[in-house]
Amino acid sequence: MSRRLLLPSALFAACTLWAGCETPPPPRAPLPPSESDLDLLKSTKLCDTRQVFLDKHPGIAPHTEAWGSGQEVRLSPEQSLSKGEESYFFDEDGTLVGTLFVFRSGLDLAPYKTLRYTLSRLKPSLEFYLTVAQIADRQNMASSTLYDTGDEKTTTRYLVLGDRTAPKLLAASFTVDPYVKLFSPYRKEFLDRLRDTAQQRGGQHLDTQGAEDKEPFASLQQFARGQTAQLAYCGTKNQTIALDAYQKASASGFTNKVWQAELHHRLGVSWEAAGNLEKAKTELLASLALRPNSPEVVNNLGAVYGKLGDKKNALASFEKAILLRPNYAIARFNLADAIADANPKRAITEFETYLALTEGIPEEADRSALAQKRVQALKHQ
Question: What is the dihedral of CA 198, 204, 208, 212, to 10 degrees?
Fold first, then answer.
């Protein structure tokens, strides 16, 4: 993207090229400890294609079944390197978005000193009782603990039986972040794997552990697919897939207003990227009708107004976004662009505030360079 100096009138028209409607995946600060000497993903990695996965498992004929609009590929303990039951979940585009490892008899973690130390430093996400009939040296009902770790774009979860002195691993999952809610180890379809029941598998049994479990599986899956594509969780953005996914999520729908509002928001972002600004505006206004005080949606609506040439509403939107969240850096940048012609003095202040808020953030390097040039240009007008 060019860093050339733009005149104020041209810069406002181009502001969404820099600020955009898209919000990058939020960083986890601080990230939890994640070191492990138990390497369950030896043969593959998240975001691999299905063909790459199959190429890495020559001579194996895995069992495949539907997983919503995607596929689940399962390896038996006899086929797997981990000697546990391995499941690999691919979305409808053939991208690996999650994996699940199940050890029905419990995997003794005594040999894995690093992982045990990591678990000792993690705060349990959930503690509950679980019926595990195949653990011979335990009572039928045993306490289990769920631990979350991961990095900026993926989540790792360990479901551990017993106390910290003699832990046994029952299940581990590795997930691209937007799909986390579909891979909770305490969801019924995954607990059934531990219990060895004959219940239906494939990720579509719903439980009542949280609000998302009451939503249509198809909607949750497509929403996660849209986020993965729109926010480049697998390396590159794909706005075509994002728009397709969000439209499919809209077709099956959500019941919860928070989910509904965010779906309208994401559809608005997708339509803006596709160049259909009127549909983008309609979706963003629908989102705000459900949740009127979302600073991200208000700011993104302002960016759409700016592209439509409605400077008055764009300015009002950026002002409101900052009122809702004073440290909202991108809204500060957008506001500075919007007022550069009429109020250069305040524009300089807003650009400098943006620069202070984003200092040291690599993702903002290009926009920061542009803001610095704009400040210099405005000071010399």
Answer: 160
Residue type, 96: L
Is 12 a residue whose pLDDT tops 60? no
> What mean pLDDT do residues 108-115 have?
94
Backbone angles phi, psi at 62, to 5 degrees: -70, 155
The pTM of the full predicted model, rounded to 2 decimals, is 0.84
Q: Minimal CA–CA distance to 53: which of 84, 91, 104, 83?
A: 91
Residue 1 within a domain:
no
| C-alpha distances in Å from residue 170, one per residue of 83, 96, 196, 197 | 12, 22, 13, 16
Q: Report pLDDT digits (tens) over 148-178.
A: 999 889 999 999 987 777 889 989 999 999 9
Is 332 found in the same domain as 307? yes
CA angle (207, 27, 42) in 5-degree steps: 70
Residue 258 φ/ψ, nearest 5 degrees: -65, -45
Query: Does 147 share its domain with 238?
Result: no
Do 222 and 361 fall into the same domain? yes
Domain of residue 108 covers 50-205
* End-to-end CA, the chain: 25
